[in-house]
Structure to design on (106 residues):
């Protein structure tokens, strides 16, 4: 009898754990529904965009870094390459890698 109670508890705990993970899996499936469409919508020309547009389009770039991008561009001219983009304080190669499909130069 005691053995049966333990099995019932284990089965119940397993079902509860599985039920808790279903909403998380559904949410992650919704997020990855259309990555190509998402990237196309969020591309930004860093040589002409405003700080707000840059901050909205690039992952890991907030308004403060986006303002630094605009200030650097105004002081030094247009970015000729993605490598030149890393000259902005706070923009490193990792940020460029994460956003390479989103960044337009022309």
């Amino acid at each position: 009898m005691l053995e049966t109670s333990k099995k019932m508890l284990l089965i119940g705990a397993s079902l509860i754990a599985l039920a808790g993970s279903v909403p998380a899996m559904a949410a992650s499936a919704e997020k990855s529904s259309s990555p190509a469409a998402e990237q196309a919508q969020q591309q930004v020309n860093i040589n002409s965009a405003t700080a707000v547009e840059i901050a909205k389009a690039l992952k890991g770039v907030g308004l403060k870094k986006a303002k630094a991008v605009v200030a650097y561009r105004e002081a030094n001219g247009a970015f000729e390459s993605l490598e030149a983009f890393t000259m902005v304080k706070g923009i490193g190669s990792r940020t460029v890698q994460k956003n390479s499909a989103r960044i337009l130069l022309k």
Q: What stands out?
A: The chain has six helices and two strands. Strands lie at 44-45, 103-104.
